[in-house]
Design a protein that fits this description.
The chain has helices spanning about 15-25, 40-45, 50-65, 80-95, 100-105, 180-190, 210-220, 275, 310-325, 355-360, 375-380, 410, 415-420, 425-430, 440-455, 460-470, and strands at about 1-10, 30-35, 110, 115-120, 125, 130-140, 140-145, 170-175, 195-200, 225-230, 235-240, 240-245, 250-255, 255-260, 265, 280, 285, 300, 340, 345-350, 365-370, 390-395, 395-405. The chain is an alpha/beta fold. The chain has three domains: about 1-40 and about 100-145 and about 265-325, FAD/NAD(P)-binding domain, CATH 3.50.50.60; about 150-260, FAD/NAD(P)-binding domain (3-Layer(bba) Sandwich); about 340-455, Enolase-like, domain 1 (2-Layer Sandwich), CATH 3.30.390.30. Strands 1, 2, 3, 4, 5, 6 and 18 form a seven-stranded mixed sheet that branches. Strands 19-20-23-22-21 form a five-stranded antiparallel sheet, with helices on both faces. Helix 3 (about 50-65) crosses helix 4. InterPro entries: FAD/NAD-bd_sf, FAD/NAD-binding_dom, FAD/NAD-linked_Rdtase_dimer_sf, Pyr_nuc-diS_OxRdtase, Pyr_nucl-diS_OxRdtase_dimer, Pyr_OxRdtase_I_AS.
Length: about 475
């Protein structure tokens, strides 16, 4: 078995692994990249890219049904579900070259297409070769969690890895799980003409600000999506086209297709991490603040590291470890400035602490500033006034922001920058933005923080009075 010696061996060609490989090789390090499945990982093939493409198709259909308030006669669109899924495939194909084996080999990365297995603390085997490296990066990501529900293993069901293979529209899609994946797929399929029922054991979008989550859930119910909360699934039975889901209390829900969207599980099983002395558990590989594992030669990033299952987190963490691996500089991964978005319509975006978390951590020292979308002239002009922005401020610095409404994912960026750079809220208030834009809401909510200090302060009024009496 041939031996390859390299500076860095990256295991997993998802967003995090690709970022490390590209950055390291272009800075002069020798890099081996190992991938046992598809280049681009979950995000490109089964996650962020295809889900947003299908949501875009659903949004286009929804536009036909709207417009009465703007003087446009609505109509029911003619939908080709198969063509919508072909759009998804075309989007993936358009992005694939950027993540391809050919591109990375062109950069100078040695790519091995096989599953990697540690055989020691500084060595793995893959593709009939032994790879010995100064540093390893585990970036193998995660896969859909399929819970041990009675009967589920014997019933045809979909996950985010298989739902985009469909070409015939489900007549009635049952979805177990009311998190971001479940609700995004619920809305996309409802707008594309399917009947949809979401079954959630607790609260839909239960990890988000309750007020914002309630607005999203209400909007989806308004489109005809049945969302059943507090319904623990006890058993599943049936066959393709006729599936039954039994929930606690005896209620039985029937549908033609079943999507399981209850979370993710880390891809650790093939790695033989014990041979490398890497500690791991149900949540993935255990890492410190520098993203190093119990084996100092081995780092872990992305979903496998259990610090947020988002593509942008993996990309950020790649930059953190490159600083450490290539330049031997101290580098720690922060978590307080990482945003996330649920891409339903309306979108729900969050960065930093929610209102509840901020008050729990800082008590009465937190000020919460909230402004409705109806305060934006652009929102009024477009008839998109449903939503709000809420900012949590501690000693003049934003420590969290929640935005729910159209394009919330775009609007959260300014607050992510503020938290990343520990900016004062005055920096947001001093921006000059073009009128009319939705971005004005961020400036206005920042200005609202100062309004009581300026307009309700007796001291300010006395100072102004004195100045006016003295200045000719």
């Amino acid at each position: 078995m041939d031996l390859i010696k390299t500076d860095i061996c990256v295991i997993g060609a998802g967003s995090g692994g690709l970022s490390v490989a590209a950055g390291a090789v272009q800075m002069g390090a020798s890099v081996v990249l190992i991938e046992g499945h598809k280049m681009g990982g979950d995000c490109l093939n089964y996650g962020c890219v295809p889900s947003k493409a299908l949501l875009a198709a659903g949004k286009a259909a929804a536009q036909h049904r709207r417009g009465a308030a703007l003087g446009i006669t609505p109509d029911e669109p003619v939908i080709s579900y198969g063509a919508a899924q072909e759009h998804v495939a075309q989007v993936i194909a358009a992005i694939e070259p950027h993540d391809s084996q050919e591109r990375f080999e062109g950069l100078g990365v040695q790519v091995i297409r096989d599953w990697a297995r540690f055989t020691g603390k500084d060595e793995v085997e893959a593709g009939g070769k032994r790879i010995r490296a100064r540093r390893f990066v585990i970036a193998t990501g995660s896969r859909p969690l399929v819970p041990p529900i009675t009967g589920l293993a014997d019933v045809p069901h979909l996950t985010n890895e298989t739902i985009f293979d469909l070409r015939a529209a489900p007549e009635h899609l049952l979805i177990i799980g009311g998190g971001p994946i479940g609700l995004e797929m619920a809305q996309a399929h409802r707008r594309l003409g399917c009947k949809v029922t979401v079954i959630e054991g607790a609260k839909a979008l239960g990890n988000d600000d309750p007020e914002a989550a309630a607005l999203v859930v209400a909007a989806l119910r308004g489109e005809g999506i049945e969302i059943i909360e507090g319904a623990q699934v006890e058993a599943v039975r049936g066959e393709a086209g006729a599936i039954e889901v039994k929930v606690a209390g005896g209620q039985v829900l029937t549908g033609s297709h079943l999507l399981v969207a209850v979370g993710r599980t880390p891809n650790t099983d093939r790695l033989n991490l014990e041979a490398a002395g890497v500690t791991h558990g149900r949540g993935g590989v255990e890492v410190n603040e520098s993203l190093r594992t119990s084996n100092r030669k081995v780092y872990a990033i992305g979903d496998i590291a259990g610090r947020g299952q988002f593509t942008h987190v993996a990309g950020y963490q790649a930059g953190v470890i490159i600083r450490s691996m290539l330049f031997a500089l101290p580098s720690k991964a922060r978590r307080d400035h990482i945003p996330h978005v649920t891409y339903c319509d309306p979108e729900l975006a969050q960065v930093g602490l929610t209102e509840a978390a901020a008050k729990q951590a800082h008590g009465d020292g937190v000020q919460v500033i909230k402004l409705g979308f109806d305060a934006a002239d652009r929102a009024q002009a477009e008839g998109k006034t449903r939503g709000f922005i809420k900012v949590m401020v501690l000693k003049g610095r934003p420590i969290g922001a929640t935005i729910v409404g159209p394009n919330a994912g775009e609007m959260i960026g300014i607050w992510a920058m503020a938290l990343a750079n520990k900016m004062k809220i005055g920096a947001i208030a001093s921006m000059v933005l073009p009128y009319p834009t939705m971005g004005e809401l961020s400036k206005r909510v920042a200005g609202a923080y100062f309004s009581p200090k300026l307009f309700e302060s007796s001291l300010v009024k006395r100072v102004v009075g004195v100045v006016q009496s003295l200045v000719p």
